[in-house]
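This is your field. Have a critical look at both lines of this record:
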Amino acid sequence: MKLKNSDDISSTDKEYCKSCIVEEQFINMEASQKIDDANKFFNTATIDMPKINLEYKNKPVYDFVKRFFDILLSGFALVVLSPLFLLTIFIIKIQDGGKVFFVQKRVGRNGKKFNMFKFRSMRPDAEEEIVTLLDKNEATGPMFKIKNDPRITKFGKVIRKTSIDELPQLFNIFRGSMSIVGPRPALPREANLYREDQKYRFLVKPGLTCIWQVSGRSNISFEQQVAMDKEYIRRRNLLLDVVLIFKTIPAVVRHDGAV
């Protein structure tokens, strides 16, 4: 078959070729955008801080005293709870032979990421499995949470119900990346989806407990959590911290909102 030269190609054929090229470029751009969106959700990109303020006041004296008590109380708790730590480590290790501690990147004060410690309560490959479970997410907002998560081990259910899995964060508190009281630390993939006003949570150190932790935990919607965290940041003082610490104990005993 003899091919047409450029003079023989009709204007209709030329327009059709142009439309094919444009369509192909659009498809490639759309695919690239989907990849970028996926990377934004799963990768640990730098977290930008909010450009506006929420009646935020620097409290250097409060921060100094709070840091002193964070070191004192976390150090004391690590010593007193050491037998429980050893027992938990032993059971996790004989359960499946996997790692005892689960180390995960979280977003701290001023958007700075740090390694947060927990006792491992899920199967060793739990992080890889999350992609297959996204459509089962029961949490609101950018959070991911499933009530009966199939990745949780038998012993994992026990330590999550009793909040024992959170105890290694006492090391984070002692080292200074966390505080006893403050907004719970977010995952980078969640923080990347935050609106500007939701990033106020990063104005203070993340904590082991907070207002919504003693008000229902997982039963509180994401928007309510953000509102309560903003209220804490605005009102934060030593008396409020002491009240929240004492309220945390019965909330843990009652398993309020634990999953």
